[in-house]
Description:
Blueprint: H1 4-11, H2 14-17, E1 29-37, E2 41-46, E3 50-55, H3 63-66, E4 74-81, E5 89-92, H4 96-101, H5 103-112, E6 116-124, E7 127-132, E8 135-140, H6 157-165, E9 171-180, E10 185-189, H7 195-198, E11 206-215, E12 218-223, E13 226-231, E14 252-261, E15 264-268, H8 280-283, E16 289-298, E17 301-305, E18 311-315, E19 339-348, E20 353-358
Parallel strand pairs: 3-5, 13-15, 18-20
Antiparallel strand pairs: 1-2, 1-4, 2-3, 4-5, 6-7, 6-9, 7-8, 9-10, 11-12, 11-14, 12-13, 14-15, 16-17, 16-19, 17-18, 19-20
Amino acid sequence: xxxxxxxTKKNTNKKVYQNFIDIPKIGDIVKGKVLAIKKNEIYLDxxxxxxGIIRGPELESGFNQNKKLSVGDEIxxxxxxxxxxxxxxxxxxxxxxxxxxxxxxxxxxxxxGEIITVKTVGxxxxxxxxxxxxxxxxxxxxxxxxxxxxxxxxxDKTKILNLLKNLIGKNLEVKIIGLLENENKLIxxxxxxxxxxxxxxxxxxxVEGEICGLVDFGAFIKFNNCEGLVHIxxxxxxxxxxxxxxxxxxxxxxxxxxxxVDGKFSLSIKELIPDPWKxxxxxYSVGQExxxxxxxxxxxxxxxxxxxxxxxxxxLSEIFDKPIKNPEEINKIAKVGDVLKFKIISLxxxxxxxxxxxxxxxx
Length: 363
């Protein structure tokens, strides 16, 4: 028999052991020796280090057989909670039994590459716990589809977990990609389903999809259950501070595949847009005076819009007629949104560069 004090003592050592052994996690199958058998509970000793409890509906799988168990017998159970109100592992027989009995069937499914439907029953920052028939497996975030991947700009684990929790209760189509029989673990993948679709694409292909993510370095496009990244430099011919300047989530766009590495797509939106700099000399020339709108003020000058596609830079040296000690003095000259007169002093179409000199305010 066991008691709460011995259970608590064993399980309070989890933090001590975690640096030396692998502590069971939710979804793991563990083996343990029977410590005690009560009317509706079975207590197990796990590796002489922890205590597990099987009780209530979790005894459904063969509880009549368990009545024949004796203290000291070894049985297997599934971890469904790592720290219950008694400080013990909460275990289940109703899932563990089917998992072991169905092992050969799972092997056949994996070898044939069959697509199966699973139901999400739990989440942690690493992925989703999914139920297939009466067995539990794991779908890592690295194996999730673009539609379900928890994309968070700052990588905040709390935000990731919240997004994953929103998927609990949903049915997902997956393939089995891992069978760790010694550890009784199933590993699922959504991404494997799309490998054949990915192989249909090659560099130069044009795809049509939907913006599914915006980060400071680019935009993610979902197309035909695949996903690609458009680097910020490949979104437009002009300079952007952030992709959200011209794109938004859910927007339909076309893009060209410019690279495929390890199944990852690099895309370009601007490749499908005529390069406005090719004909820039038909519109602008060195020495020409133009009106331009100040888009951004930096410590080295002004970024100026001459038209929606052609932008130029007025360096500090072309704003003031003498050296200045404090670059912030530029704020006395212009502010974002101002329309000022400039003179074009350099034009390099091949480099997409245009130099300007401020006319009206130059002293």
